[in-house]
Design brief:
The protein is α/β, with parallel strands linked by helices and 162 residues long. It has a single domain, classed as P-loop containing nucleotide triphosphate hydrolases (Rossmann fold), CATH 3.40.50.300. The chain is built from six helices and five strands; from the N terminus they run βαβααβαβααβ. A five-stranded parallel β-sheet has the order 2-3-1-4-5, sandwiched between helices. This is Cell division protein ZipA. Pfam families: AAA_33 (PF13671).
């Protein structure tokens, strides 16, 4: 009998610590970590200059990545997706990766207040100058305006971290 891996994904505002938590789970669950930011940077270097660019390129990679992730899960490996699950639509796509192949999933909801997120963004911007263009209070406020709190009614296995 083949065991299917577990899919881990995240919800939380910009600066909540999703990437940091993804790296932790990669280690603790012996999982394959896939980062949307890394894929986009490798496939479309210097082509993402604003939020609309991000949305367009993100949409392009999802069909290929979905199949790739499902193949990894089917061989029994756990997968951690450092992709945003901050809207109902994003979470629906993430959940479909697991549900279509009857894999288990876990949504880690990092419920961190705005002030703490902004402090982390400022720190990250100072440590990673390449992020200076996007890691701003204005971007945080704009992106946060789309945030939808995850709900169990979406069919999600949610673990909330405050």
């Amino acid at each position: 009998m083949i065991t299917i891996g577990t899919l881990y994904f995240f919800s939380g505002k910009m600066g909540a610590g999703k990437s940091t938590k993804a790296k932790e789970i990669e280690q603790t669950e012996n999982a394959v970590l896939l980062s949307e930011d890394e894929w986009l940077e490798k496939l479309y270097p210097k082509q993402i200059n604003n939020f609309d660019d991000y949305l367009n390129y993100s949409k392009l990679i999802k069909p290929l990545l979905k199949e790739h992730i499902q193949r990894i899960l089917k061989v029994g490996s756990n997968v951690v997706l450092d992709f945003p699950g901050n809207t109902t639509i994003q979470r629906k796509w993430l959940l479909s990766i697991a549900s279509e192949i009857n894999a288990n999933h876990q949504l880690i909801f990092l419920n961190i207040n705005d002030d703490q997120c902004l402090k982390r963004i400022n720190k990250r911007r100072n440590e990673e100058p390449a992020r200076e263009q996007f890691d701003t209070k204005e971007t945080f406020e704009y992106v946060s305006s789309f945030f939808e709190t995850p709900k169990f009614s979406e069919g999600l296995n949610i673990i909330e971290i405050k």
